[in-house]
Design brief:
heterodimer; A: about 425 residues; alpha/beta; Aspartate Aminotransferase, domain 1; Aspartate Aminotransferase, domain 2; 7-stranded mixed sheet; 15 helices; 17 strands; globular; B: about 150 residues; Sufe protein. Chain: A; 4 strands
């Protein structure tokens, strides 16, 4: 953290995490829903935004907006400085070695596709293997299947157990000299399982493979230090990190990114173009063709400022405590079964109720002002593994409090009464 | 909660818990499978189609209360009807649940699903069985997906 950030940090530092005060930073949480107080439990799909982020985006359009890069007028200079300043903030937040290692993307999905299409196409051949886990989101499955179908690489899946944990022995067994990349979720979006990132990365490297971490559900719940994790790529979405939609980053080690070919061609990613030959730009611009999401990236910078000022050790403890409390309340309700009972979980309470379809659970909870997501959560293989079509998923953010968990439990009781179960 | 009762009328809850014409149909000669990827619902509709008449109809599968009840009510309504009558009923039903002005003369007990019109995301739940029926009327072993 820089000196400036330290000075502007709110009074929360060195005190108990004040979740009620944090909630006042998120204006939408005070809006009633279906005539009731909103109980927002869908942060894993997209998190709500603090006023600081909303203001940063508005202020950009009101005062500082023009297209970035290559203009001689002041307004564009200002927009460029803010836009690139946000990249520096992100780089600092995840402890990247330099902002050249931070590629702006639309979100985790685009980040993983970038690695697949750029690094994958340049480095993989038929017979090479990509190892993923049985708990991956579709966005960490399908990009690799597309490579399988075009290059003939093999997609290998390390299974999970009934608690929702990766089976480490099975993971180890599937690593070999043919493994070129290991790609796995930091935290499972459907189950909440926290994977042992450092251990998996070390195993991947020992086998001579690179390691990509899908951080979509990781970075919202933990302070991430990409150098400490040891991975080669870390992908995440800005909108799950309390920032605007259409933002996110692919972090990669500079030497890897330097050696990778561009994947989309166009403006901004070039140094010079003739009809005969194009010289590509340097990092990170090589991977950023076209006009980017300027105000949104500046908003992501504001989100990172907001988060950096929080006492993260206390935030993590608070989130873990609220999640454990919610799980305890849910387990106490007859007929409710939690899907995903890993000992290390973050942010997610996936559940089913005997005799009631998740969609019906979601509709009744909605009538109580409680927003949960129902369905397969873009993780159909996880649903298949547990032999269920869908779950109801309550997911938590740093603003989630014990009262939200109590409202959820009361809501689930109402669901059961309503359907006479 | 009172709005919810509009959606989940007792008839719907009853049909979802005790679906009619549910299970395998030994005499049927047509089937189609339907899938709603949004909620994971899967349904198989089987028909005993004799000439132009739906002599018998059964369904199997799993789904939310709305989709199971809708399938159950559908089987009761189309049994004994001609193919043209069943297709016309589907049109009327679709109009009913999407909030249009239904010429409801033939809808009868299907009217209990009218509350779906206030829940646009649930329309596909209510119509999955009907889309699957329409597929079975078109040909054998067809698979359809909503969304």
């Amino acid at each position: 953290m820089t000196e400036t950030a330290r000075k502007t940090a709110p009074l929360l530092r060195n005190v108990k995490f004040d979740v009620e005060r944090v909630r006042t930073d998120f204006p939408i949480l005070a809006k009633p829903m279906r005539g009731k107080p909103l109980v927002f439990l869908d942060s894993a799909a997209s998190a709500q935004k603090p006023q600081a982020v909303i203001d940063a985006v508005s202020r950009t359009y009101e005062q500082d907006y023009a297209n970035v890069h290559r203009a001689v007028y002041e307004l564009s200079d200002r927009a460029t400085a803010l836009y690139e300043g946000a990249r520096k903030k992100v780089a600092r937040y995840i402890n990247a070695r330099s902002e050249r290692e931070v590629i702006y993307v639309r979100g985790t999905t685009e980040a993983i596709n970038l690695v697949a299409q750029s690094w994958g196409r340049a480095n993989l051949k038929a017979g090479d293997e990509i190892l993923i886990t049985g708990m991956e989101h579709h966005s960490n499955i399908v990009p690799w299947q597309m490579l399988r179908d075009t290059l003939g690489v093999k997609l290998v899946v390390a299974p999970i157990d009934l608690n929702g944990d990766l089976i480490m022995d099975e993971f180890r067994k599937r690593l070999s000299s043919r493994t070129r990349l290991v790609a796995f979720a930091h935290v499972s979006n459907a189950l909440g399982t926290v994977n042992p990132v450092e251990e998996l990365v070390a195993l991947a490297h020992k086998a001579g493979a690179l390691a990509l971490v899908d951080g979509a559900q990781g970075i919202p719940h933990f302070r991430v230090d990409v150098q400490a994790l040891g991975c080669d790529f870390y992908a995440f979405s800005g909108h799950k990190l309390y920032g605007p939609t259409g933002t996110g980053a692919l972090w990669g080690r500079e030497e890897l990114l330097n050696a990778m070919p561009p994947w989309q061609g166009g403006g901004d990613m070039i140094r010079s173009v003739t009809f005969e030959k194009t010289e590509y730009n340097d990092l990170p611009y090589k991977f950023e063709a076209g006009t980017p999401a300027i105000a949104d990236a500046i908003g992501l910078g504001a989100a990172v400022d907001y988060l950096e000022a929080l006492p993260w050790d206390v935030v993590e403890a608070h989130e873990a405590e609220v999640l454990a409390y919610g799980a305890e309340l849910m387990r106490a309700i007859p007929g409710v079964k939690l899907i995903g009972e890993s000992k290390r979980k973050a942010g997610v309470l996936s559940f089913v109720i005997d005799g009631i379809h998740p969609h019906d659970i979601g509709t009744v909870l909605d009538s109580e002002g409680i927003a949960v997501r129902t369905g397969h959560h873009c993780a159909q293989p996880v649903m298949d593994f547990f032999g269920i079509p869908a779950t109801a998923r309550a997911s938590l953010g740093l603003y989630t409090n014990r009262a939200d968990m109590e409202a959820l439990a009361r809501g689930v009781h109402k669901v059961k009464e309503f359907f006479h179960v | 909660m009172s709005d919810l009762r509009e959606l989940y009328q007792e008839v719907i809850l009853d049909h979802s818990r005790h679906p009619r014409n549910f299970g395998k149909c030994p005499t049927c000669n047509r089937d189609a499978k339907g899938h709603n990827p949004l909620c994971g619902d899967r349904i198989t509709v089987e028909l005993d189609l004799e000439g132009d008449t739906i002599k018998d109809v059964h369904f199997q599968g799993q789904g939310c209360a709305i989709s199971v009840a809708s399938a159950s009510l559908m089987t009761e309504m189309v049994k004994g009807k001609s193919v043209a009558e069943a297709k016309k009923l589907f049109d009327q039903f679709h109009t009913l649940v999407t909030g249009g002005e239904a010429d409801g003369a033939d809808l009868d007990k299907l009217e209990v699903l009218a509350g779906v019109r206030d829940y646009p995301v649930r329309v596909k739940c209510a119509t999955l069985a009907w889309h699957t029926l329409a597929a079975a009327l078109e040909g054998n072993h067809i698979q359809v997906a909503t969304e």
